[in-house]
Design a protein that fits this description.
The protein is mainly α. It is built from ten helices and no strands.
């Protein structure tokens, strides 16, 4: 009797996970650089070196693939942002700018398409909520002295001063260095935080 080959489910599962990771990385890259309607299952499958049926078995359709990409990026952003080092506005904004340096171009690319692609609205809204929560944590001492409309206005001003659009204007449009953007953003945020 010939020896029977044993089935190695662990190896197959690991290979499937590696394939899924490769697909997600390629999909994130394409969603971050191409117009949303040009990212197809076929383009992702080709970039990842898999077949369309392989991709469909794991993610279903383009919406399922995008949802998996959004979850991956959200987890990555949360790891990057972590708990802000409250107490030092300069350090917090320095880390914030480092985050924009890593993810800002992708976020700006997606924001430009938000009005035309309903699927982008939920993850981008979650990003805005995360930014507002970051502001309320970092500037808690300054915000805590205010209430009602005054508090909301203070938070709104700090959200605006530290927003991606400010980074994009200074860094991408005007060509300022990351250090210059950090210094300018700190100046604006500290002025708002000091408001009586």
């Amino acid at each position: 009797m010939k020896g029977r080959r044993t089935y190695d489910g662990t190896s197959r599962a690991q290979k499937a996970e590696q394939t899924a990771e490769r697909v997600l990385l390629e999909a994130v890259r394409l969603f971050a650089t191409e117009p949303f309607d040009r990212v197809t299952l076929a383009s992702v499958a080709e970039a990842a070196g898999v077949t369309i049926p392989t991709l469909q078995r794991r993610f279903g359709n383009k919406e399922g693939l995008f949802a998996a990409c959004a979850a991956l990026v959200a987890a990555r952003v949360e790891r990057q942002r972590g708990d802000p080092p409250v107490g030092s506005i300069t350090k917090c904004i320095g880390e914030h700018i480092a985050h924009y340096e890593r993810e800002g171009a992708m976020m700006w690319h997606l924001l430009r398409q938000e009005a035309d692609v309903p699927l982008l609205r939920e993850p981008l809204a979650a990003g805005r909520a995360l930014h507002r929560a970051w502001v309320e944590t970092v500037f808690a001492e300054s915000i805590g002295r205010t209430a009602g409309r005054q508090r909301r206005a203070r938070v709104d001003a700090l959200v605006a001063a530290t927003d991606l659009f400010v980074w994009k204007l200074l860094r991408l449009d005007l060509g300022r260095s990351a250090a210059e953007v950090t210094a300018l953003m700190c100046t604006m945020a500290e002025a708002i935080a000091r408001e009586p």
